[in-house]
User: Fold this.
Amino acid sequence: MTPLQIKALTFDVFGTVVDWRRSIIHEGSRLNREKALTINWSEFADAWRARYQPSLSQVRNGDRPWANLDQLHRESLATLTHQFGLDCFDQSELDRLNRVWHRLEPWPDTVPGLLRLKRKFILATLSNGNVALLVNMARHAGLPWDAILGAETARCYKPLTQSYLVTAQLLGLAPGECMMVAAHNYDLEAARDCGFQTAFVYRPTEYGPGQTKDLEPTCDWHVVADDLIDLAVKLGC
Amino acid sequence: MTPLQIKALTFDVFGTVVDWRRSIIHEGSRLNREKALTINWSEFADAWRARYQPSLSQVRNGDRPWANLDQLHRESLATLTHQFGLDCFDQSELDRLNRVWHRLEPWPDTVPGLLRLKRKFILATLSNGNVALLVNMARHAGLPWDAILGAETARCYKPLTQSYLVTAQLLGLAPGECMMVAAHNYDLEAARDCGFQTAFVYRPTEYGPGQTKDLEPTCDWHVVADDLIDLAVKLGC
Assistant:
């Protein structure tokens, strides 16, 4: 079957578009200097992110009502404060730290790659991040999205089917007219199962120097790209 | 009470940001030339738009399940084809005409005004238009939205309360941190009742030379502006 013409690219954001780990370490290092602390922010970032999928699972499984990612991040942060020596942070400082996810930095290729891709395709987020987080991040990092969509607008976290299908529907497109762009094989598997086309982007240092997963594409995705500029080249932009 | 600091401007779109009537007449005139027709597109545009509020009311009142604005526009169009002499249009041509709402033109001040406002504020749609319509319009007209929100993401048409409250919530803001920008007093009244700040923009020719409503602000809105550039000036951008 000939693939449909791609009209929109839908992006995973954390890891694929922005370098969450380095951004948290960077902001944490500044806090260490300002407050004369010796927190290990690499370990902290990894521990915070390690609570991401378990916290989403509770919502996905219906063990709790809908909660957006800002809320889930804040709850995870609360469980880590004592362990990592953040007891000296008051609640408003913890709230501010929680919003580091709104201030994540893009990978070097991200903005030029997106600007090229935008000439030809609708660019939408399809992220588990909530709308406010993604809007603030886009303004901070200069990400030229046409639409901020994903889990919150679908009321359903990836990789559940509805998160992909509702996003395509909101764009007024058939799933096959959308290409999911992600650095994570599980995300592309779920998108493919919904009928999306798929593009794998290498982000071999997302989890730091010791990353063990998603180092390679695990299926024959429609496109495999070194980064978002390479994706633009491969999609003829 | 001191007003909260404004963080986001939420915009009505049809009439406030784009000139739907002139755009439909313009596209219709081209169709007249191409197909040697003599359709009165001014009357057609007014008749099409006259079916807008009644069609929304059916959804608002729960007389029918959710339907997005593309669907409602398409149904209204079907009721007008015979009356206006569009019988020579086949279904795909009518589908294409229905998408004229995706190709509306901005007022002359719109794009420069929005670009100035964007320096200081989050810019979001709070429109009864569906996401696909607004995304395509933004790409067509160069509208630099940070977020495409409104009726479809709230599953509720203006002026019902939830359309405003859900939009503020998705932006992660209190209603009072949002300013509704509209050329229509009824929209500002509903937004104000939800706690939004309000800006009235004069669009005295939205409904053509014989416009009778919304020629003046009917309340003491927080700001009254001649156009979006004037709004930028008045908001200190």
